[in-house]
Amino acid sequence: MEKKLNIWFDKEGDFLELTVGKPVKGFFREVGDDVLERVEAKTGKVVGFSILNFSKRFEKLKETKRFQLPLSIELKSG
User: Fold this and answer.
1) Do the Cβ atoms of 42 and 25 come closer than 8 Å?
2) What pLDDT, on the 0 to 100 scale, is given for residue 3?
3) Around Cβ 64, how many Cβ atoms within 10 Å?
4) How far is the CA of 9 from the CAs of 21, 26, 70, in angstroms?
5) Quick check: 55 pLDDT over 80?
6) How confident is the model at residue 21 (pLDDT cuts 50, 70, 90)?
7) What is the 3-state secondary structure (H, E, C) of the chain?
8) ∠ at Cα 8 (49, 57), nearest 5°?
9) What's the CA gap between 44 and 56, in Å, rounded?
10) Phi-psi region for residue 65, left (φ > 0), alpha (ψ -120 to 50) or beta?
11) 20: Cβ contacts below 8 Å, ≥ 6 apart
């Protein structure tokens, strides 16, 4: 089954969220400084992640050309 990557940015809240598939009930678990993974409540499966204060990290990107997040992602083509 094909699942789409959803990207949402709240400029006022400076909050970036990436999720896979349709929205599901779940919770956030902190995995690093202002980085949270979204976990599906029913299965315990990670279905996305969020970054608080995203613009501040992006400003650093202009200087260093990169920033790292405390997580790893496995991508598969369908």
Assistant:
1) yes
2) 78
3) 7
4) 17, 19, 19
5) yes
6) confident
7) CCCCEEEEEECCCCEEEEEECCCCCEEEEEEECCEEEEEECCCCCEEEEEEECHHHHHHHHHHHCCCCCCCCCCCCCC
8) 65
9) 30
10) left
11) 3, 4, 5, 6, 47, 48
Region for 34 from its dihedrals, namely left if φ exceeds 0, alpha if ψ lies in -120 to 50, beta otherwise: left
Q: How many residues are recorded in the chain?
A: 78
Q: State the Cα–Cα distance between residues 33 and 12, nearest whole angstrom.
A: 20
Is the pTM for the entire model greater than 0.85? no
- The whole-angstrom separation of Cα 50 and Cα 53 is 10
Contact residues for 12 (Cβ-Cβ < 8 A; gap 6+) = none
Kindly state the tokens that stand for 16: 């970036």
